[in-house]
Amino acid sequence: MQIDDYMRQEHDLRSESAAIYDAAERREEGKLGRSYKWVALSNTTLGALMASIDSSILIISLPAIFNGLGVNPYAPGNIVILLWLLLGYMIASSITIVTIGKLSDMFGRVRLYNFGFLIWTIASILIYASSYLILGTEGAISLVILRIVQGLGGGFLFANSVAILTDAFPKEERGKALGINQIAFVGGSIIGLIVGGILSAIDWHLIFLISVPVGVVGTIWAYVGLRDIASIRKGQKLDIVGNLLFGIGVLLLLIGSTYAILPYGKNNMGWSNPFVMVSIASGFILLIAFAYFENRKEDPMFNLSLFGIRAFSAGNLSQFIAGVARGGLQFMLIIWLQGIWLPLHGISFSNTPLQAGIDMIPLMAGFLLMGPLSGHLSDKLGARYLASFGMIINVFGFLILAMLPANFNYITFALTIFILGIGQGMFLAPNTASIMNSVPPEYRGVSSGMRATLANVSFMFSMVVFFTVLISGMALSMPHALYNGLVAQQLQPAIARNVSEIPPTGALFGALLGSNPMQILIPQSVLSSLPAVNRTVVLGNTFFPSLISSPFIGSMRNVFLMSAILVFIAAIASLLR
């Protein structure tokens, strides 16, 4: 009964707050002018776009970056550096977004958004300078550290852009505005692949330079043009214990999950690594403690009663499940294109990043086509059926991917990822608008932070799940395929067996980095003793991709089937709103 009374009081307060805020919003719009909402949309969209581009631009640029730094990706410990280069940005933003959202509700969303833009821009300048000044392994570590700082700035942008838009636009226009913003957020991750491929083909330093002018202009523009129009609740206090429990808990979960996909001892993955097990278990314990203590705080870091709002809880649940299903998709497709399909079609390893980025354009086109349209339609029709149908479209997209051979027909592949882009665009904007429309105005900052945190964490979990399924399958069939291929090229069985024991993780990162690991794994004395014809084959562009293609696609089918099941569950969760 106490919970029911509390929820009724919360509902009454939300209704009263919404009415008061709508009136204040109309008054504020008169003061700032009707053009302010477009200033807010353009600046936050620019911030979301660049923060998202930076989260993905390295995926496709890693071959050029490692070559430019002079780092051997197969040296002991360097795969860890590679992994942190890829994921450190997202980890930094994920563990801080909810805290930033709470601080934004306390001190002003625009104020903290501007501060984050400044951090992000300074980090971008330092990263560009570091790429020239520090080379080798030290240079790679320097990039990791600065990318983490940049991810912190990105967290301010992720946490506040949606809340600022929700404040600036009336309810009947939020779907359209959030649709455009979310296109920038998700579309930016796809654009990052294309831009990364183009720039890495010109000069790898440009990968880091592109953020600098946009950051400078965006920071100045944000400070000049944006205004805090949401009222700040007085008397709020920062829940230090809650923030520490949540931040450290998420950090331990993400670090443990990340190291789980690396080899440990003789195992192909690190799930048996004590560090991984302790990290994940400790992370769960801290998050359970967070939920326990937050329910007893007068002014908690995050009001867990918001999950009692059906649209909020169902929207976040469907977003999280959908994120796990598709978060690692781009990464897998890039490995497929750069490491297997493009080399088999005669594209040199030096050109695969650019071509892979171009080949991913249909995914972005589908998203760009449907994102704004679905946001506009959600303002008129609501989010429930639009978002759910988008996930059903994704079910069919993943099922088609599961049926493609390793050496697919590109037209079929392009149409399939276009369909996936359509489904993602149809889901994301209505779902985001539904989540943000469901919460009281004074909770928009922290609610936006929670939504963004769940999106980022779902991406990280997706990577772990995808790699776990993929590596587990490849570990069963890849050694046999490598052994037979090497013996067929007249390598001695003992040497072929030794080379075939390369962990699937190393093979996948080798494919991602656009290199043939045979020239590193096979001793030079052995290579020089091979007949010229066999040596040319072993060191050629197609030998390694052709050997791992069958184990790869066999395991990828399991990944895509799992994703189809997950997005179907996400569609059901979306219908519950």
Short description:
This protein has 577 residues and is an all-alpha fold. It has helices spanning 2-32, 36-69, 78-94, 97-107, 109-133, 136-168, 171-202, 206-209, 211-225, 240-260, 274-294, 310-326, 329-344, 352-359, 361-381, 384-403, 410-437, 444-488, 493-499, 504-512, 518-521, 524-529, 532-538, 543-575.
User: How far is the first residue's CA from the last residue's CA?
Assistant: 24 Å
Query: Percent of residues in beta strands?
Result: under 5%
The tally of helices reads 24
- What structural class should be given to the helix and strand makeup? mainly alpha
Number of strands: 0
Radius of gyration from the CA trace? 24 Å
What does this structure look like?
The chain is an all-alpha fold and 577 residues long. Among the domains are: 239-300; 474-555, no CATH class. 81% of the residues lie in helices and 0% in strands. It contains 24 helices and no strands. The chain has helices spanning 2-32, 36-69, 78-94, 97-107, 109-133, 136-168, 171-202, 206-209, 211-225, 240-260, 274-294, 310-326, 329-344, 352-359, 361-381, 384-403, 410-437, 444-488, 493-499, 504-512, 518-521, 524-529, 532-538, 543-575. Residues 1-7, 13-21 and 23-30 have low confidence and may be disordered.
What's the arrangement of secondary structure elements?
Blueprint: H1 2-32, H2 36-69, H3 78-94, H4 97-107, H5 109-133, H6 136-168, H7 171-202, H8 206-209, H9 211-225, H10 240-260, H11 274-294, H12 310-326, H13 329-344, H14 352-359, H15 361-381, H16 384-403, H17 410-437, H18 444-488, H19 493-499, H20 504-512, H21 518-521, H22 524-529, H23 532-538, H24 543-575
Helix pairs in contact: 2-3, 2-6, 2-7, 2-9, 3-6, 3-10, 3-18, 4-5, 4-6, 4-18, 5-6, 5-9, 6-7, 6-18, 7-14, 7-15, 7-17, 10-11, 10-18, 12-17, 12-18, 12-24, 13-14, 13-20, 13-24, 15-17, 16-17, 16-24, 18-19, 18-24
